[in-house]
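User:
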Amino acid sequence: MRSGQRVLIIGGKGQVSTSLLETFRTTSCHVRQLGRPAVDLLEPRSVADAIAKFEPTIVVNAAAYTAVDKAEDEPDVAKAVNAIGAEAVAKAATTAGAAIIHFSTDYVFDGRKTTPYVETDPIAPLGIYGQTKALGEHLVAAANPRHVILRTAWVFSPFGSNFVRTILRLLSDRELQIVSDQYGTPTYALDLADVVLGIAQRLSASPHSDCFGVFHAANTGSTTWFEFARAINAVAARQGATQRTIRPISTKEYPTRARRPAYSVLATDKLQNVYGVRLRPWRDALDQCVDRLFANRTAQLETKRPLPELEK
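Assistant: Predicted structure:
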């Protein structure tokens, strides 16, 4: 990436923004990460001021309200962050002459398909979270013609709160029951950050009009939450952890406040055709993630630093 490029990452200490910062710091561009309170999507003025001050060439919006069940009880807050706040980021980027890379979700789909969703499939979100992210897509696209909207799914990483870290924590002392009839694709945040870097490099050069629009970005392959948990269990066991029993249950046996799509696997052919990017299989990424988590824990023990609990 050219050294003169200025990349602003909007988002605090979440797993995607942390992965983005780690990845972009390996380049020669000028990168800055801003989260609350400096930039708060609930306060659009703070967004506009921060972007105007930094004068970015590319803005990456990794800030979002992601509490799927809680969103059912806080629809106004979810909308303020995922839609109105996202629009404010896109507008401010336009004013600064910057392109925007914005994250969306597989939960914009209703899960009625049985083959991977493509970008042109109709959206029909089942819950407030998906509805606000779908609205955010529309508002971002309308506010900034130089937009790349990346729908992704089931994100995990060594950072923040996610399914992998939760399962590792729970497996330390109990057997588990995990839903086995919801299908999707686990996506490694650090692989996703590599995708964003590749897109940013292309946008900083001479982007074609095809470079803008909606794209799906996810690791290859598909699975259920149950099989995902079993894979985490197996990788952890290779690191010396006790292997636990994980039992499959149905969605009906595990009711949640928000409805989830039964099938939300994302086709990523468009991303490969336009940007030449194809993510590796999710199982390979999971191996790397769990290895890194255990290596971090070992290093902390060896240096006698306090060992933090895995996130819930």
